């Protein structure tokens, strides 16, 4: 019996095997949390203590003093500078060190803006110390997040190692749920993720928001992402991926360099941790050399050549196999052992060969291409060959394997592609042995399997449409009996029952004595061409019918237009008012428009003048013109003013016509008062010519007819004097495609102002000298006030 089993055991304990009280579980969880916090604090303190110890060592070396004296000196200097011992230690290390991290931290201020917070320098060096102190990528990820990335707003970190096949394995993470991490433990080659892009492009990938990037990745599916490749000696060993909970704003260059420095720290851990670099390669250099000697194609085994700074500068040709042939003619021994760029300098520029080898070595991604152009200098003359190329990494080696494209094989492949694209199949029949040779495409044309027996030409009439059998027999007779080339087109009935339109071209092969040795030729499937010709013929028939219908419509529209709107009408004299009207139709018959004019004396002794323009052309525009012109005449008999008449005409246009729109100007002239009341519906205002000066009347408010159901139109009055001339016109008189409309109106004003003569001559003049280029109908109505004795009431 233990103490816990004895009677009177302490409160809160229970006998073995009994239920555990809730209070005991709570105390146990609190103890675990306290111990975990102490461990984390101890780890952070140990990371900082390592930096302080390094600084003491620097002071011992420089001041020639003991460790105890160096510790006291460090504390006094920190107190005098107003910084912590850790920050001073980091400053000393940065001054003594000459590494990438020192270059990065020199870009940051020593202190942060908030008093009491560790400086950026301290955070980076503390993270570096934690990385160097442990080879565990999991602890490295946590340390980087806590010391360096959390102050930048990051919420999670993932450390990926790169396998020999360019796969990615998750070896360390922080701020990510363990179940989520387990799902992303391994990423096969070819899966597009931010880390994969950083690996393949060999540069940092900055993603503002993962939701818009369309890339799957570990952790939250939203927020900013940064993936930085990590590696040394030209080989990428891993990728450091950092996550932000919100979209990531553009970062300054110093922050970018800081994250790249953190990736270099991860590379140190991945290189020192065998479990973090993926599966070990099974082939060493000797095995790879032995393997290449069994190849039937030329092969090179390359080893990386590093510079003094540890960076990849070239590849050394470690081995060339027995099938290797140097393009320049050098012996194998002269190439083996040389640097790749020294032996083949054009590899750096032609075909990007060196760049591809470098990419394969860095990422482990295999490169294959069916056709690559390789160039080398032979006596200063560039020699170009086409070859299939394969580049792969095997551990620390790169295998380059190629196969020079044979000219005969290339031409055969080219012919095969040509036959496939042209749906052509070739054949040859030996008349002595009866052996028939078909190309693969010919089996497809006949609808037969590749193992089926070819169809001889003599049996071909049995496989075609009955109406075409005789033309095929004639083809065979011409070849066999008369020994002349021949061709024929027919409908081939395939075993499936469907029909193909085929053209065959054949020729006889004769010996020196003129005896027939063989027949050879080609079949071509012209079904697509046949149906295209059928469709073209039908389209031509429909087009001819459409043209005939359109011509008939244009003829009817022109007749209707000329019946209602003659080109020229006699001048009208009424109550001292002289009216001249002109109409010019479009030159092209299919451009018959809907322009109209009208000038009539109403029962009220007032005179109605109007011009209008229907949108569109053809019979619809012509009939619409008749509807609106007659409707306006009927509305004028009601005694309403021009504005009210246009309001009613707008209702007619909107409700009683289908998709019809028009502009118009309507005026009522009172001979007794010489006052013109007028309104406009989206039309150009009339032009007033008075005492040699031409001006446009104001643009009264009013939308074109038919656009909306309810519309009111502004009305104005104009007092006319003796000899005043008023021109109402449609846009076909002035409009040009290359000039603004205001410039076109200004030209008409200048023409009207300069002209002196009778009204009929003025109307003919502006119509004749019009430089409009829209080929549209044109209406012009001219009104001139005579010297009558009507009242002169001003309005």
From TrEMBL:
Superkingdom as given in the UniProt entry: Bacteria
> Looking at the record, which segments are called Disordered?
1-21
Annotated PAC domain ranges read 486-538
Task: Enumerate the SMART domains for this protein.
Answer: ANTAR, PP2C_SIG
Q: Hydrolase among the record's keywords?
A: yes
Keyword Hydrolase in the entry? The reply is: yes
Record protein name field: SpoIIE family protein phosphatase
Q: Tell me what organism the protein belongs to.
A: Nocardia aurea
Lineage, highest ranks first: Bacteria, Bacillati, Actinomycetota, Actinomycetes, Mycobacteriales
């Amino acid at each position: 019996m233990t103490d816990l089993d004895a009677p009177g055991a302490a409160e809160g304990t229970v006998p073995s095997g009994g239920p555990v009280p809730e209070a005991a579980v709570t105390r146990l969880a609190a103890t675990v949390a306290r111990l975990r916090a102490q461990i984390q604090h101890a780890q952070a303190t140990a990371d900082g203590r390592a930096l302080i110890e390094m600084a003491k060592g620097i002071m011992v070396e420089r001041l020639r003093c003991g460790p105890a004296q160096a510790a006291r000196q460090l504390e006094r200097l920190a107190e005098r500078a107003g910084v912590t011992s850790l920050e001073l230690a980091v400053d000393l290390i940065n001054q003594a060190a000459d590494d990438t991290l020192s270059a990065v931290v020199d870009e940051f201020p020593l202190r942060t803006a908030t008093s009491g917070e560790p400086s950026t320098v301290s955070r980076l060096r503390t993270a570096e110390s934690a990385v160097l102190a442990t080879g565990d990528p999991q602890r490295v990820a946590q340390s980087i997040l806590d010391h360096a990335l959390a102050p930048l707003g990051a919420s999670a970190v993932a450390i990926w190692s790169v396998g020999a096949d360019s796969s990615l394995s998750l070896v360390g993470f922080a701020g990510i749920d363990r179940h989520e991490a387990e799902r992303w433990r391994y990423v096969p080659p070819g899966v597009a993720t931010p880390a994969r892009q950083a690996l393949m492009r060999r540069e940092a990938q900055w993603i503002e928001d993962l939701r818009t990037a369309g890339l799957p990745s570990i952790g939250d599916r939203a927020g900013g992402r940064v993936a930085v490749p990590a590696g040394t000696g030209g080989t990428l060993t891993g990728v450091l991926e950092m996550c932000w909970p919100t979209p990531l704003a553009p970062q300054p260059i110093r922050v970018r360099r800081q994250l790249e420095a953190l990736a270099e720290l991860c590379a140190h851990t991945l290189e020192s941790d065998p479990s973090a670099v993926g599966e070990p390669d099974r082939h060493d250099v000797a095995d790879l050399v032995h393997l290449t000697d069994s190849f039937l194609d030329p092969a090179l085994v390359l080893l990386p050549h590093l510079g003094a700074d540890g960076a990849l500068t070239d590849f050394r040709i470690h081995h060339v196999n027995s099938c290797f042939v140097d393009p320049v003619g050098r012996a194998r021994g002269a190439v083996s052992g040389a640097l790749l760029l020294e032996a083949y300098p054009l590899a750096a520029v032609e075909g990007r060969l060196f760049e591809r080898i470098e990419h394969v070595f860095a990422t482990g991604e295999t490169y294959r291409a069916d056709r690559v152009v390789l160039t080398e200098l032979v006596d200063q003359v560039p020699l170009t060959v086409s070859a299939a190329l394969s580049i792969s990494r095997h551990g620390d080696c790169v295998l380059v394997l190629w196969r020079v494209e044979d000219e005969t094989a290339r031409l055969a492949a080219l012919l095969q592609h040509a036959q496939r694209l042209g749906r052509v199949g070739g054949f040859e029949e030996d008349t002595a042995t009866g052996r028939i040779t078909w190309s693969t495409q010919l089996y497809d044309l006949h609808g037969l399997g590749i193992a089926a027996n070819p169809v001889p030409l003599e049996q071909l009439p049995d496989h075609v449409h009955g109406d075409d059998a005789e033309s095929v027999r004639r083809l065979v007779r011409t070849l066999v009996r008369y020994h002349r080339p021949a061709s024929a087109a027919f409908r081939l009935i395939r075993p499936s029952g469907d029909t193909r339109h085929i053209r065959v071209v054949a020729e006889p092969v004769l010996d020196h004595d003129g005896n027939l040795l063989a027949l050879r030729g080609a079949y071509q499937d012209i079904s697509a061409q046949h149906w295209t010709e059928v469709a073209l013929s039908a389209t031509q028939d429909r087009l001819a019918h459409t043209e005939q219908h359109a011509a008939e419509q244009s003829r009817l529209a022109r007749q209707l237009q000329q019946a209602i709107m003659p080109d020229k009408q006699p001048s009208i004299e009424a109550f001292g008012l002289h009216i001249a009207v002109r109409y010019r139709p479009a030159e092209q018959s299919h451009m018959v428009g809907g322009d109209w004019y009208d000038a009539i004396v109403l029962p009220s002794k007032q005179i109605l003048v109007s011009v209008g323009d229907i949108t569109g052309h053809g019979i619809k525009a012509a009939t619409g013109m008749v509807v609106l012109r007659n409707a306006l005449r009927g509305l004028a008999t009601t005694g309403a003013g021009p504005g009210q008449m246009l309001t009613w005409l707008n209702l007619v246009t909107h409700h009683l016509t289908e998709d019809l729109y028009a502009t118009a100007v309507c005026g009522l002239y009172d001979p007794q008062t010489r006052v013109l009341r007028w309104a406009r519906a989206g039309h150009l205002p009339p032009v007033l010519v008075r005492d040699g000066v031409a001006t446009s009347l104001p643009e009264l408010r009013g939308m074109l007819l038919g656009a909306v159901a309810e519309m009111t139109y502004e009305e104005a009055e104009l007092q006319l004097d003796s000899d005043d001339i008023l021109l109402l016109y449609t846009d076909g008189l002035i409009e040009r495609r290359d000039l603004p409309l205001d410039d076109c109106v200004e030209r008409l004003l200048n023409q009207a102002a300069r002209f002196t003569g009778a009204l009929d001559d003025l109307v003919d003049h502006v119509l004749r000298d019009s430089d409009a280029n829209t080929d549209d109908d044109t209406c012009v109505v001219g009104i001139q006030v005579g010297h009558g004795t009507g009242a002169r009431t001003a309005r």
